[in-house]
Amino acid sequence: MFKKPDTLVGLGVGTTKIAVIVAERDLRSREAVHIVGIGSAPSQGIRKGLIVNLDQAVRSVRSAVRDAENIVGFRLDQAVVSFNAVDIGSVMSPGMISLGGVPRPIEADDIERLIDTARSGISIPSNRISLHTIPIRYSIDGNFGIDDPLGMTGTRLEMDLQTVTIPMQYAHNVVNCVRAAGVEVDGLVIKPLAAALGALTEDEMRAGVISISIGGGVTGLTFYKDGCPVKIGVIPIGGDHITNDLARVLGLSIKKAEELKKRVFSAGIDDSGRAPSGNTVDRAKVLEIIQCRLEELFGDNVLSMVPDRDPDQFPAGVVLSGGVANMPEIDVLLASIFKTSVRVADPRDYYQMPPGRSDSSYVGAIGTIRYILSKERSPYKFIDPPDLQWNGRGGGYVPEEDEPVGPTFGGGKKESTMGNFIGKIKKAFEELF
Ligand SMILES: Nc1ncnc2c1ncn2[C@@H]1O[C@H](COP(=O)(O)OP(=O)(O)O)[C@@H](O)[C@H]1O
Ligand SMILES: [Mg+2]
């Protein structure tokens, strides 16, 4: 196999699957791309979005990459990687520079100087990495609402800068894992941001919108306002929790519970309660268990992360993606909790997708491609870590023999016990089903 030039490769590390997406540039325009292949493989050694067994994770990544290579027919040797991290930090800092007494056009150097002043105002603990630095808004001579100051004229330039930080260990683990699978890491993007980029339209981003991406182990959130991601977060609850709840309460194996979850809304179970397993299950009870978990996720966890707990600040409503967004009625359920419009993202909104790979669980992979393009188009939209801590040029990172590869979850959000959540059905849900 030979290396094909001018392709963009996104590699998404998820709890459920590793997705590899390959896009080729349009011959006529560098900005237009076509998806030429998507590979995937089930994830192993990844829990709640984080690598907990490096060997298994490397094998999963390698097999997803092979899958994509077999489809496109050439070797993939570099990729921009999206991955999850619990414990995402976000700091806003202001920056200001003077352009001199006489108004003059703003140059790239000025913007870099401005970003440096905003950055110098914050200190990042040595065990964390600033994964993304995102200009949220600029002002020229006191007038905010400037999208891109380059070439505009003024005497004073100001900005608000958002710095997104994660524990450094997570970034190192993911980079080591992808490299060990034979792929060079060309960039890193936090998954909730990739999902938002794959799910949202420019109009929604400008109006204000909440992107919610529900995978197997975690749910990613990105809040957009005035065209910029103002907050990014991860909640350690995902579709697998629904499966586990079903297995526990109904006494099923995980495999059967997973099947039941996906089929309960369709014709999979009839009203007499015939489950795929052949066992008899109480359909109302299955729905109740699903609803309880989703209510906990949206009503308690997601809502508490909405800035000022006020979804009205996001008039374009909620856009859902990730595997769980395939669940029928989930948009109706969510609309009743948030009292806002909800739509399910479709990866075909941006690109033509290969057959069988067009459901909302591939939205994040699409977003990784849009992230690469967006960075090319405007170099200041998402800024990489200043010191390239993760790329190994500043000294490689190899975990100690007995150092845990993953984090511990002691301080995480408390999950509700079966007892309290079974009793937690609300009127809204009764009306739904
Ligand atoms: N039709 C469906 N109904 C309900 N849940 C689904 C459906 N399809 C996929 N899921 C769930 O989505 C989750 C996987 O999400 P996905 O975004 O593909 O993975 P990742 O965790 O790797 O980001 C799993 O919990 C899976 O059970
Ligand atoms: Mg996903």
Total strand segments: 18
Averaged pLDDT:
85
Bound molecules: adenosine-5'-diphosphate, magnesium ion
- The stretches of 5 or more residues where confidence is low (pLDDT under 50) are 392-433
Walk me through the structure.
The protein has 433 residues and is α+β, with helices and mostly antiparallel strands. It folds into 3 domains: 7-86 and 168-203 and 347-391, ATPase, nucleotide binding domain (Nucleotidyltransferase, domain 5, 2-Layer Sandwich); 89-165, Dna Ligase, domain 1 (2-Layer Sandwich); 228-344 and 410-432, 2-Layer Sandwich (Nucleotidyltransferase, domain 5). 32% of the residues lie in helices and 26% in strands. The protein has helices at residues 54-72, 108-120, 168-180, 191-199, 202-207, 239-250, 254-263, 283-305, 330-338, 363-377, 418-422, 427-432; strands at residues 7-13, 17-25, 33-42, 46-47, 50-51, 78-83, 89-98, 104-105, 128-140, 143-146, 153-154, 156-167, 184-190, 209-214, 219-225, 228-235, 318-321, 342-344. The strands form 5 sheets. A 5-stranded mixed sheet has the order 3-2-1-6-13, sandwiched between helices. Helix 4 (191-199) crosses helix 10 and helix 6 (239-250) packs across helix 7 (254-263). The longest helix is centred in the C-terminal third of the chain and has 23 residues, at 283-305. The radius of gyration is 22 Å and the shape is globular. It starts with 6 loop residues before the first strand and ends with a helix. Mean pLDDT is 85; it is low at 392-433. The structure holds adenosine-5'-diphosphate (ADP) and magnesium ion. Magnesium ion is lined by residues 14, 215, 322-323, 361, 364.
